[in-house]
Amino acid sequence: MKLSELAGGVPLGVSADIDIAGITADSRAVKPGYLFAALPGTKVDGAQFIPAALAAGAVAILAAADAPVPDGVAVIRDAQPRRRLAQMAATFYPRQPDTLAAVTGTNGKTSVASFLYQIWREQGLRAASVGTLGVHVDGETRPLRHTTPEPVELHRILDGLSGEGVTHTALEASSHGLAQHRLDGVRLSAAAFTNISRDHLDYHPDFESYFAAKMRLFADVLPEGAPAVIDIDRPEGARVAALAKARGREVWTVGREGAAVRVSDPRPEGFGQRVDFSFEGANYSVTLPLAGSFQGSNAAIAAGLALATGSAPDVVFPALETLQGARGRMELAGQAPSGGGIFIDYAHTPDALESALRALRPFARGQVAVVFGCGGERDTGKRAEMGAIAQQLAERVYVTDDNPRGEDAAMIRQEILRAAPGARDIADRRAAIAAAIAELGRDDVLLIAGKGHETGQIVKGHTYPFSDMEAVQKVLDGFARAETPPV
């Protein structure tokens, strides 16, 4: 591709148009003929890598207005180089699936994207989802490093999916991704809001900055006139709906007070629930094979997105009965020898932990137990909040290590325990899980919260293999072997 096509005109000082073989913001990935995007970062300024990129064969540079670039080098300067990079990536990788829906919010993004993907597949559509758990397409999972990939990677993925014949794709839109313009250039058909609560305040200066980053999806990225599906029951739902409407988006509200998709209060059935939905005057009673009232909300948002992008209601609502929960999202991991249910959830914020514990309460005729910790080098203020929530909503609380990273793990646990004085302090996560399962009664329910789908534990710069699901299975296998009489 010619530089003029990529940049919308040949940069000043360039005597001849240049062929661009690729684009990257990683100087280590530069190859001959590449354009290197020297992006300013929170810790490192990409401009310092311009010499290395040129030495590796870069023939053009995208940089901020004041970045030092050697004379004679083709340079595109932009006050918002991250946004410009996303636009260039969309030009370099021009193909995208016909229908693209993005989901933002603190909790529920992964579940909604997964549910929408499953609803589309149930209709026989070539569908994919892109997010925390990777790229799902045709039953295959391809790994990703970020919930919302960097723009060059994201547009390469979308171009590739379109080339494979994928017509429908669900995307998770993280606050980091929106703040860093990673989704700019994506031709969205619809977008959705799940909820918002305290999270990522180690990155965003305050809650309002975090909220503003999320709202970029509706204010800037979603085209005018496109549908915005919003859970109106959430505290900030009305605020989001007002913003989307003011920006000219078509607002679809879902929930108990939803104008587009109305949802009844769920009624537990085993480890699932029955939920009644209404849409355009018709009622649909659905047996949802998922635990937790918030999963009913997630299913309603996914249904709203499917309907808003052209799917028929007599196909969408029956498809909800076939949904499988996303990995590590209120996932039934098994039953203790006593019969008590064991659930794994990614809940790592105060709001998510509260929602998960409240959601499991109807399934416990006995007590609710919870195993959780908090990550190191992240928002420290939520530790005491989560401790207090666990103490209030669970009869038995086991405080353990999450991903302490570079912090003192014992100090993290102490910050939680100060707000949960009745909790047990068990540093080793495997031991905490084993103790909780061993003490689980027949009518009890156990929530193992915080890590969800993760398969590693980060301690002092090292990632050690660890999976909550595998830990649960080893404990249950141990009980099974102990109960099997010798032959």
From TrEMBL:
Which SUPFAM superfamilies does the entry mention? MurD-like peptide ligases, catalytic domain, MurD-like peptide ligases, peptide-binding domain, MurE/MurF N-terminal domain
- Positions bound to UDP-N-acetyl-alpha-D-muramoyl-L-alanyl-D-glutamate: S27, T147, T148, S174, Q180, R182
Instruction: Report the subcellular localization.
Output: Cytoplasm
Q: Which cofactor does it need?
A: Mg(2+)
Kindly list any coiled-coil regions of this protein.
Answer: none
Give the pathway.
Cell wall biogenesis; peptidoglycan biosynthesis
Residues in Mur ligase central domain copies: 103-306
Domain Mur ligase C-terminal, residue spans: 328-452
Q: How is it modified after translation?
A: Carboxylation is probably crucial for Mg(2+) binding and, consequently, for the gamma-phosphate positioning of ATP.
Reaction catalysed by this enzyme: UDP-N-acetyl-alpha-D-muramoyl-L-alanyl-D-glutamate + meso-2,6-diaminopimelate + ATP = UDP-N-acetyl-alpha-D-muramoyl-L-alanyl-gamma-D-glutamyl-meso-2,6-diaminopimelate + ADP + phosphate + H(+)
EC numbers, comma separated: 6.3.2.13
GO cellular component terms, alphabetically, are:
cytoplasm
Q: Which residues form the Mur ligase N-terminal catalytic domain?
A: 20-93
Q: Which Pfam families match?
A: Mur_ligase (PF01225), Mur_ligase_C (PF02875), Mur_ligase_M (PF08245)
| Positions that bind ATP | G105, T106, N107, G108, K109, T110, S111
The UniProt annotation places meso-2,6-diaminopimelate binding at: R378, D402, N403, P404, R405, G450, E454
User: Where does this protein chiefly localize?
Assistant: cytoplasm
Protein task: Catalyzes the addition of meso-diaminopimelic acid to the nucleotide precursor UDP-N-acetylmuramoyl-L-alanyl-D-glutamate (UMAG) in the biosynthesis of bacterial cell-wall peptidoglycan.
The text of the family note is: Belongs to the MurCDEF family. MurE subfamily.
Name of the molecule in the record: UDP-N-acetylmuramoyl-L-alanyl-D-glutamate--2,6-diaminopimelate ligase
Task: List the source organism.
Answer: Dichotomicrobium thermohalophilum
State the encoding gene: murE
